[in-house]
Fold:
Amino acid sequence: MNKIPVTLSINGEGHDLYIPPNRTLLEVLREDLSLTGTKEGCGEGACGSCTVLCSGHPIRSCLTLAAEVQGEEITTVEGLRTKDGRLDPLQQAFMDHGAVQCGFCTAGMLMSARALLMRNPEPGEEEIRKAISSNICRCTGYAKIVEAIEVAARA
Ligand code: FES
Ligand code: FES
Structure:
């Protein structure tokens, strides 16, 4: 297949790539840029494990063509750390409150939660549950994830 030039901004860094036009953002992140924090679960938009932020909005990277998001700022879980290497308050709260078991859903959950806190720093439980309703977790039963997001919001 012919390749096309694509320029992406990911976690504040520019990347010039030469890729097939049907390459997904998830494939670019994981396979071309080795940003493997973003996980592939279903690969068809149903589980949320591949969620990243596109200019602050959560998107499914498995359903998004890389070429579509040129000009946007993409944030992955690797971009949540502060510049001095500290964990984002959400990451710390997930660790401290038992919101991570197998961890497969965690990156996607964190990105959906970060998008929520960016638009509403003080969400109630119902808003939190709605914000993560498209992210499937098979392990935790969600209660500890909701609690961790509440704690991070207070922090
Ligand atoms: S891998 Fe993208 S939604 Fe499941
Ligand atoms: S911690 Fe295992 S799927 Fe959520």
